[in-house]
Specification:
This protein is of the alpha+beta class. The chain has one domain: HIT-like (HIT family, subunit A), CATH 3.30.428. The chain is built from two helices and five strands; from the N terminus they run αβββαββ. Strands 1-2-3-5-4 form a five-stranded antiparallel β-sheet, with helices on one face. The relative contact order is 0.22. The mean pLDDT is about 95. The chain binds guanosine-5'-monophosphate (5GP) and zinc ion.
């Protein structure tokens, strides 16, 4: 998709700190982290947001969650003392600024309000 920042990151036309990649999904660090750990789990398929997903995307969405938990385990996030949040912002009104579906993985908070993520 032309002019989509995340498609450009996926195509390596823009730099990013990639921490995981497979044929369908890429994970990179958020450029403006709202927590100690702030990663974006992004499908390579350009889908605008959760509001336009279809049955065809079921497998991809499950894979995003499986990738999220694998990364959390790799990072040894302790669920009792730290834990993590998985967030989809859906629509401008909810804070979505990039119109390419992405799952925020956040862990290690100070006083960040959820509404600012
Ligand atoms: P949204 O607000 O759409 O749910 O989340 C978009 C996220 O993408 C924001 O947290 C923002 O900091 C991050 N972001 C925006 N542009 C870039 C970029 O060029 N590179 C990276 N790594 N993250 C970005
Ligand atoms: Zn895109």
């Amino acid at each position: 998709m032309e002019d989509c920042i995340f498609c450009k990151i996926i195509n390596k036309e823009l730099p990013s700190e990639i921490i995981y990649e497979n044929d369908k999904i890429i994970v990179f660090k958020d450029v403006n982290p709202k927590a100690e750990i702030h990663l974006l789990i992004v499908p390579k398929k350009h889908i605008e947001n959760i509001n336009v997903i279809t049955d065809e995307d079921k497998g991809l969405l499950s894979e995003m969650l499986i990738v999220a938990k694998k990364i959390a385990i790799d990072l040894k996030i302790n669920l009792d003392t730290q834990g993590y949040k998985l967030i989809f912002n859906v629509g401008r009104g909810a804070g979505q600024t990039i119109n390419h579906i992405h799952l925020h993985l956040l862990s290690g908070f100070s006083n960040q309000s959820l509404s600012e993520i």
